[in-house]
Amino acid sequence: MSDIEKMIGGDYAQLTNTNIRSFGWKGVTVTVKDRQSQQPKTILSDINGIVKAGELLALMGPSGSGKSTLLNVLAHRTATLAASVRAAIYINGAPANPKTFRRISAYVEQEDALVGSLTVRETLNFAARLSLPKAVSKLERIQRIEALLTAFGLQNQANNLIGTPIRKGISGGQKRRVSVASQLITSPKLLFLDEPTSGLDSAASFEVISFVKDIAKKHNLIVIASIHQPSTSTFAMFDKLLLLSQGGTAYSGPVSEVQPYFDACGFPIPLYMNPAEFIIDFVNTDFARDRSEVDQQLNMVHSSWHKSRLATATVTELTDEMARNSMDTDVNAEARDDSAGAVAIPLALIHRSFIKSYRDIIAYGIRIAMYMGLAIMMGTVWLRLNPTQGNIQSFINAIFFGGAFMSFMAVAYIPAYLEDRALFIKERANGLYGPTSFLIANFVTGIPYLFLIAMLFSIVAYWLSNFRPTAEAFFTWVMWLFLDLLAAESLVVLISSIIPIFVVALAGTAFANGLWMCTGGFLVPPQTLNPFWRYVFHYIDYQAYVFQGMLTNEMSSRNYTCAASPTAANGCTCMYQSALESECKIAGTAVLKSYGYGPGNNTGRLVGIMIGIIAGYRILGWLVLYLRRT
């Protein structure tokens, strides 16, 4: 038997809930302002409920009934709701402490917040590293991971990839199990599931709910799941049902009493028909032909509920729990520091990002291939240019192309960033980390790949084009190209954070790069640029500083031969006047002067400005992520 197997021992006691007896809510009411009439509109109205340890509650209702809103309110995720919320939420009959609540609860999103290029075991490992307190040792973390793999029947898939569009991974049902398991890594006592069977067939749905039920019963957990029209067998696995219709309660109580209740109300469920399907259709008003008849029917349903024995029993049960008001001291102790650490979280994110980036070729692999193709094209178009005055403009054009188009092609990073951002939004909502850790990891992960791209591109394009053939000039070019790519990727991060929609972010980034090209100093020299564009955009244009740095690197220490001219006094005609004209040569500094750039070595100042622009983009990106919750 391995050490891991000895640690697990077939069970894991810490997952078991021993101190959370009940979870209840009373008078949950949510209102929003109608966009057209600007009048308050009720989304949820006076919703009550209670769930005991070891029970599964199904939160059901037609689309627009308020299921997701109620689930978010109960899970203390109201920061994402632009609404007025009034709710009393209790644990063991006492008001829930927000800090305690975050520690003892977990929320599983409707869409799997998984990285497709990680294996199942790696996914659980990173979930543990991001969420478990510093006090939890590495040995205990491994123990939790292996115990969950065993509990969810994922041992055989532990080393399989989750799956990407390019590489097939585990099945849909297994992904949902991984999502639930990754939230159980912190041993929560309350588990919230948002549409856990969404996108799954009936067999996979039954499989997922069955695993959740087994875990809940075995470890005495409380599970609340919003679910849309489950199959008969899946529906029967739930202990309780809260049925919503137009923001009100249509039924709340044991699943076993659904049929007798509707029979007693005069709305019998047909024999051999799925009860879940019948009650959802019954309270659904979206496809009603006679609106008044349906409204009358719903009013009767809501009225019947408020007068029912079950409604009274729910309020009585809540009142009894509140009267006991015996929240255990162990529960309050759960409010301890639950952070994984200010250093551990960024390190875990960096590690995860590196694994994702080298396994997922979309992030950087395709970009490297694209840039290498661009380098070959550039090197063969500007092939072996001789340092003559006739080629001066070609050298300048090549410098502009190398910087501007490398920057422009950074738009290829948008899909990868939007995928990372979507994962960040979900993990942030679960309280794992904030925008600082996310952007640090994003920036650090990109540095080696962008440097590799700059180096590979330069090795091909620089020497084929016959730029100044010295090691110093070559590595200075690489530096400028690297800073150019860092600034371009930082711009992508900023724009994609402001507008997290692929097509719009693509258009916005392309427009910004077009603007930087126009005001960078190549198409129109800075001294002749329109004052508005010069003073508003030129001095914050990172491409302008890259172009100036690259041009200075090429021209400041290189001379170019003039064209022969029999009629000229010294036998040649030079396009630029310089001190070397008598030798039939043009000093590169004369070319710099025509662009308004001084001959001095101002590389340090330009690099400092570039670093400031890059930092500015990243800080603005952080501010956008900090202010936006979705």
Q: Which structural traits does this protein have?
A:
630 residues; alpha/beta; Rossmann fold; 2 domains; 6-stranded mixed beta sheet; 4-stranded antiparallel beta sheet; 24 helices; 12% strand; elongated; disordered N terminus; ABC_transporter-like_ATP-bd; ABC2_TM
Describe this structure in words.
Helix 22 (542-555) packs antiparallel against helix 23. This protein has helices at 3-8, 67-74, 98-104, 120-131, 138-151, 172-183, 202-219, 232-236, 258-264, 275-282, 291-307, 309-324, 329-333, 344-359, 365-381, 392-408, 414-429, 435-465, 471-498, 502-519, 531-536, 542-555, 588-594, 603-627; strands at residues 22-33, 40-52, 56-60, 84-91, 94-95, 105-108, 190-194, 222-226, 240-245, 248-254, 559-561, 563-564, 572-573, 585-587. The chain folds into 2 domains: 16-113 and 189-324, Rossmann fold (3-Layer(aba) Sandwich); 350-557 and 598-627, no CATH class. The chain contains 24 helices and 14 strands. The longest helix has 31 residues, at 435-465. It is α/β, with parallel strands linked by helices and 630 residues long. The model is unreliable at 1-10 and 332-337 (pLDDT under 50). Helices cover 52% and strands 12% of the residues. The strands form 4 sheets. It has a 6-stranded mixed β-sheet with strand order 6-7-8-3-9-10, with helices on both faces. It has a 4-stranded antiparallel β-sheet with strand order 2-1-4-5, sandwiched between helices.
